[in-house]
Amino acid sequence: MKRNKNIRSAIMAGFFIGAVASGAAAQGWQCQVDASTGNGWIAPSVNITLDSSRSASVHDGITDYYEGGAVQARARQTRNGHRISWAVNAEDDLGNRIRMRYTANIDADNAIHLRADPVDFRGNLSGRGTCWQN
Fold first, then answer.
1. Distance (Å, rounded) from C-alpha 22 to C-alpha 76?
2. In angstroms, rounded to a whole number, what is the distance separating the alpha carbons of residues 97 and 120?
3. How far, in Å, are 3, 50, 63, 123, 131 from residue 11 at the CA level?
4. Are 33 and 129 in contact (CB under 8 A)?
5. Contact 44, 12 (CB under 8 A)
C-alpha cells in the first residue's frame, strides 16, 4: 500500500490549506506525528476536536484528501486520557477501495499513539507524536 509522492504532497497541502480552528466550547488538540512507519496512511499532522464525551471530529491530510475535510469520530475517556476512533474510505495506488479504521490514544501528558488498520487486510500501521491543546 505504498503511496506516491504526488498524493503525499496533495495530502499535506490539503491539510494545511483546509485546517480550521476549533470552537471555543470544544476541547481540541493539534498533533504532530512521526508518520515514517505509516506507509503514507498516517498523516504527520492531525487536528482532533472533542465535541462531547462521546463525539469528536478529526481533520488531517488523509481525511481532507479522501473525504473532503473533517470526519466524525467516536470518543471515549480512558484512565489516562482519550481514545478517538474514525474511519476513512480510501483507494490505493492500484485503484482498490480500502476502508481504513483509525484509533488515536491521547494521554494526559499529550502524547499521541495513532494506529491505522486496513479493513480486509492483515496488519496495521502506526505513528507516535505529541499534541498541544488548541
1. 19
2. 10
3. 11, 23, 9, 23, 20
4. yes
5. yes
Q: Name the β-bridge partners of 30.
A: 47, 132
72-86 pLDDT per residue, tens = 999 999 999 999 999
Pairing assessment for the beta strands 111-118 and 97-107 based on DSSP bridges = antiparallel
Q: What is the number of alpha carbons within 13 Å of residue 39 lying toward its C-beta?
A: 13
Give this prediction's pTM. 0.78
Find the length of the chain: 134
Measured distance CA(112)–CA(23) in Å, rounded: 21
DSSP-assigned letter for residue 123:
-
- The residue whose grid cell reads 470544544 is 26
